Each structure stands twice: as C-alpha cells, then as structure tokens.
C-alpha cells in the first residue's frame, strides 16, 4: 500500500457498524467508488477491554467478522476501488498501543490518543464533550497541564511506534472553540507543536510513517479547521513529513467530507 500515491484521493480513516459508524462495509465501498476515490480503508476502533479493562460502546466487537467482511469486499470491488483493512488503535502509555496489533494481519494501523490517565481519578476522554474537557482540566490541575499531558502522550506514542498513520494529531483542540481554553499561539503551545514535528520527522527517517490531514472535526461540526492546524501542517511540511488526507468518516456521506478545504490547506503548506 503506497500512502504517498493515495495522499489526497483516498479515505483510509473510516468507521462502520462494526464499531461506532452508521453504515456497513459494502455501503462505504460503493459510496467511496461513486465519489471517485482511489481507495477506501477501514479503521475500526481496535478492542481495548482486554488491555485496559475499560468498557465502552464504541470499540470493535467482532474482529473476525470485521476482517472477513473486508476481505470479501476486497474481492467484490477488485478492479474498481482498492479496499484495505486497518484498525485505529488507542494509545494509552503502559496499557495499549498500535504495537499490540502488529501481528493482526492488517494492511495498516492508525495510532491515536483518545485517553489520558491522570495520577488519580478516572481516565479522561480527549475526544469527548466540552463538559468532559472541563472535567479533564480539573483532573489535571489546569488547562496548560492538561494540554501538556496530551502532547506528552503523543510523544510517547511516536516513541513507541507500531503505527503507519498518526491519527488526528492535535485533537486536544476539539472543544477549544476559537481559543476558549488555550491559545495555539501561546509560546508553550508553539513549543509543543514544534517539538512534536521534530520528533515525527526523526521517527519518519527510521520507519515510514504519515500524519493524517483529518477532516473529522469539520465533518461533525466540532472544529472550524482540520487536524493538524495549518501552523502544525506547515511545520511538518518543512520537515518533509508525509501526510495523508482522511475524513474519519462515521457514515458514507462523510467519506470525502471537507476534502476541498483540506486540499486547499495542504496546497498552502506546500504538499500538493
Ligand atoms: Zn480517533
Ligand atoms: Zn476515528
């Protein structure tokens, strides 16, 4: 699978009824084909219960049925659209990470931080609601501490590796609105995104990885811009880090949601 060739005309971050998506594998393949995409990849939320003991309603329930269904779709759509099987794997330091799924026989893995674990108290969901963000700020003792804990987790994920694509890298801004909690131009934040860009570039020289340009926040009306921010995208471009356009689609309609806007940002950063 050539991520570089699929850079701006595929949809490799998708969710179906096997986890928390609305549509089935066949519908997603058909709509991706109708939209003229060169490839569709499935990236169900990898099961976490065994490793973390956390019960959720949005992770993959039946891995065998999931991979069998995608395998059948690969054959059905052969010659029309490339179909890939992947997983979006949570990274929680010391508990679970993409490396745990390296032998799962998949085409690719997306590594994502959705949870942070405070020193005491229940884990915090980065991808949660504004109320959850308020809870996280209280848990970590302030906005800056929470944001730093998030970037620490991203750094640990990059150090541990095991993924092909780094998922929604600055999702910590999801509930930040127009800077309601922190400013992305604050020196501490600029320092964190510069350091992460350096670390990704260094990791990329050792193993071939790409960073998502993810339109999921836009598609669901949660953000006014892509992940990563244009500023971080520029830092990645300057360091020759490859990117791949994804939609984090939870329904077929979103498979190429906001792609024109994202391609515009990619072009501005010098990617296209
Ligand atoms: Zn995710
Ligand atoms: Zn996702």
What's the mean pLDDT score? Answer: 96
Beta fraction of the residues? 5-15%
Number of E strands: 9
The helix/strand class is: alpha/beta
CATH superfamily: Metal-dependent hydrolases
> Which topology does CATH recognise?
TIM Barrel
Q: Strand order within the widest sheet?
A: 1-2-3-4-7-8-9
* Tally of structural domains: 1
Architecture per CATH nomenclature, i.e. the level-2 architecture: Alpha-Beta Barrel
Gap between N and C termini, in Å? 20 Å
Number of DSSP helical runs: 9
The low-confidence parts are: none
**Main pleated-sheet profile:** 7 strands, parallel
State the helical fraction: 25-40%
Radius of gyration: 18 Å
Choose one word for the global shape.
Answer: globular
Overview of the structural elements:
The chain is an alpha/beta fold. It has one domain (10-269): Metal-dependent hydrolases (TIM Barrel, Alpha-Beta Barrel). 37% of the residues lie in helices and 14% in strands. It is built from nine helices and nine strands. The strands form two sheets. The chain has a seven-stranded parallel beta sheet with strand order 1-2-3-4-7-8-9. The structure holds zinc ion (2 copies). One zinc ion binds at residues 13, 15, 88, 248.
Which helices and strands appear, and what pairs or packs with what?
Blueprint: E1 10-11, H1 25-34, E2 39-45, H2 49-52, H3 63-76, E3 82-90, E4 108-112, E5 115-116, E6 124-125, H4 130-140, H5 143-160, E7 165-166, H6 187-206, E8 210-214, H7 216-219, H8 230-238, E9 243-246, H9 259-269
Helix pairs in contact: 4-5, 5-6, 8-9
The site of one zinc ion has 5 residues, from loops.
